[in-house]
Structure formats: C-alpha cells, structure tokens
Amino acid sequence: MLDRDLSRLKHNRTNFDNYIAGYKQYKEAKKAEQKVSKDLSKVNAEAELNKLLKG
Hints:
Blueprint: H1 2-54
C-alpha cells in the first residue's frame, strides 16, 4: 500500500512538473507574441508615415 501511495505521489509530482514547464513555455510564447505584435505595429506605423510623407 505504501508503494502504491509513493508511486502515485511520484506520478502527481511529474504531472505537476510538466504543468509548470508548460506554463513557463506558454508565458515565454505570450511574451514573444507581444514583442512581435509591438514590432509589427511599429513597422505598420512607419509604413503609414512614409505613405503620408510621399503622398
């Protein structure tokens, strides 16, 4: 019985570690997505400004 409980605890710990790793990857991806979005907005703004200056 103790072996089964220990095995279950190890399994739960592994699941928790995987969840935390996945969450960290998600947060990093979100941060990268925001940076790309910000950069894209900047590029679009520069393109719009150039269009107005040339127009």
